[in-house]
Design brief:
- By secondary structure, the protein is α+β, with helices and mostly antiparallel strands.
- Helix content is 36%, strand content 22%.
- The protein has a five-stranded antiparallel sheet, sandwiched between helices.
- It is globular.
Length: 165
Amino acid sequence: MHKNTVITLALLSILTIGAGCSKDETPTTSATNEPAITQTTPSESLTTTDIATKLTAAGFTFTTKDETSDIMALPSKDAATKATKYKIKGTAGNVDITIIELSKPEKAEDVKKDISAQWDVVKKISPTMNMEFVDIGSTNLLATLSYKTDDKALSAQVKSAVAKK
């Protein structure tokens, strides 16, 4: 702990000097014995296998389907490399969670816009269809959850199984 406090004080001193304090200013610092706070970022190492593991652990049985060709039809296709759809049987159809692997995570919003535009058309054709994005806590994966209104309860359970906790 003492070593961390000394390092913290040294860094604060350097920052204070670098900030241009004049000799009339007296910088104040307070030393505490609290551990340093580290910032965390979402995991970039999640894979589609991790999602399958979460679904299995929650008791769901599912089938998978490669949806890469559908993703490659999007205008933002250069941001994605692969897509896998997990189908879970519901009362009125399937609850689908599609995991899109992003090669350019910084373009995730572009991919979301393209997917949302397609779903706007689907919802006009079939008003009982629903789609939402699910935050699974990963910057390299984008998840969509789609379901019919009758399967909303099941979709909430699927979302709970894979969503960032």
